[in-house]
Amino acid sequence: MNAARQYADLVKLEFLMGRPYIWMGMMIQAVMTVGLVWGFGFFIPDISEGQALYLTTGAASQSVVTMALVMLPQKIAEEKAEGTLHYFLTLPISREMYVAAQLTVVGILALPGIILAVALGTWYYGISIEPGAALLVVVPLAVVSLAGVGVAISVLSPWPQVTNALTQITIFYVLLFAPILFPKEQLPGLLQDLSVAMPPTYVADAMRGALTGLPGTNLGRSIAVMSMFALVSVAISAATMRRRG
Description:
Elements: H1 3-17, H2 19-39, H3 49-82, H4 84-90, H5 95-125, H6 135-156, H7 160-177, H8 189-195, H9 199-211, H10 219-244
């Protein structure tokens, strides 16, 4: 079986087997997106256009982060506990194609959250957002650059409970201590320095650059950095899968 056929079959199988996760993931995305775009706005009296744009694009970025760093590792951890992961890794299939299929599903599932965030922010705050063609590059790169951490957490964790705890800590950090929903300058110096080495920083910056003309964004730099993170992420994912297999 050639690589393209393997990939297509694995993606189809992931959608069929993951139907409960798909609906759950979409519901969680919808609730979180409404909470971030609408609910967080309550904490900012007389919100400016720039703040509304930051909040809206941050919520769109958070959709990708949630899928790659929460849903993906929790799904793989449960598959590992049930023996499904071990079964797949004993089959004569490419580990890389298996990982690619997982990432494809995650990327597709992140799209409704991005669309909802943009639509809700545009309607509620009356802001103008014009998605650019760069979004077609940003979303896949964002998923791949983040997913290596998620795959490593799920495969190397001894129990699903550990995976769940680690993913919750990760998303807590991203929500409150990373420059996703607000500018980096609002963080303490230590967290600003730490954010430079964190993929979500560049995911959010690239998303803002692809959706808006906010000052301070650097789309080209963020895409370049995400590409480097993506290479490392793919290597980590493949290595952990091979080790598991």
